[in-house]
């Protein structure tokens, strides 16, 4: 009883303190706007640090929600009259939030376990190498372009570092919460896709946002007033919604689909969650997202049913996809052109890959410095090398020596993100898909498209193993000392220990 009274008094004290702070901030904003704004900023920073410390899973879910919804929010704010100079810095705020979370998690881990230095050391080594490239390699690109290049290159480290420092229970809660967040974005995107494109360009103001805030006027079609990749080569609109662009939408939806299937036992009405995400994923016409979902789901099926039954299910899925493409004509035309080699986007990716493979032979041992490679750098630096290849972008800037070292550090963080988890093989599969798609895309180095898929590798690895996959012990393993043989027969594995692709699962 006394404990409850003390808790009520403490809650009342916090309520009074919050009211006093809010009143003081209100007065400061009226009397001294600049000072009041600074006070509000400090209060927000203090609140975010407290959230990261006490509920890191919730803080990471907030970042995922920002990834899903911020593009539309910023576009609507710009249409409402908020100047570009205020919105542009807010786009990079999610990086600051994520790095703050990573720092808090690293401090927590090092305090709880004195030997848990692997992740902080790997992250620190990566950032140190980035700093070495910046200091020693005299880049001709502007400073803003160099910082943007470093931001993109460090994205896998940021995502893998955050998820590697979460406990398994925290990962499971983040996985389920993020699926619901993406589900909300998918449902809205499906509804928006049924609206006229003028709703997106005029009401939401996506075209103005890309031109005036993101400073990419050449990417916007003058006829539709929307970015060119918002449509297929045949002119059919691609699902985008609040995800920012169809490529980001496909990557996020594909990752969420893998998480939804892996953590379906923790979802309410899982089929009602999986179906909208699947439909939205298909309508993005984003092959990277399709590949991520297909590889992740195949790995999950192989662990649950074994290789033989998985092949039968894959065949059934292919038949179902063929039926869907027959019903949804734009989807059928798109896949048909890809398979026949007539799709313009496919031909472009093929040419870019061929060109990038030629470039691999001409990279120097040391790079040209940050900002000299990548399509994002090309917007501000005319001499930047671009080939729609994330490896080309990084090697151009860092060279073979530093680039290889950076890759080894990322592999180490990937190992830390999935090691010791029940479905580590599925997490490794997700990372492998990211590594493969990086040959034909630079999306893995953009926050909206790359952060969540890298997180998915660690989140899906923490899912519960399937109960059917229990390795049955050999007959002698059950005899023990009371067996007719009169001697103990050691078990080959502990009873009840889960092992993937066991005979019992097939």
Automatic annotation (TrEMBL):
Pfam families the UniProt entry points to: Wzy_C
TM region(s), chain numbering: 12-28, 34-51, 58-80, 86-107, 119-137, 143-167, 174-191, 273-303, 310-328, 390-411, 423-441
Coarse class of the protein's main subcellular location: membrane
Topology of this chain in the membrane: Multi-pass membrane protein
Any single Gene Ontology cellular-component annotation: membrane
Region listing for Disordered, in residue ranges: 477-506
Keyword annotations from UniProtKB, A to Z: Membrane, Transmembrane, Transmembrane helix
Subcellular location: Membrane
Occurrences of domain O-antigen ligase-related (ranges): 274-403
Protein name: O-antigen ligase-related domain-containing protein
Source organism per UniProt: Geodermatophilus obscurus (strain ATCC 25078 / DSM 43160 / JCM 3152 / CCUG 61914 / KCC A-0152 / KCTC 9177 / NBRC 13315 / NRRL B-3577 / G-20)
Origin organism lineage: Bacteria, Bacillati, Actinomycetota, Actinomycetes, Geodermatophilales
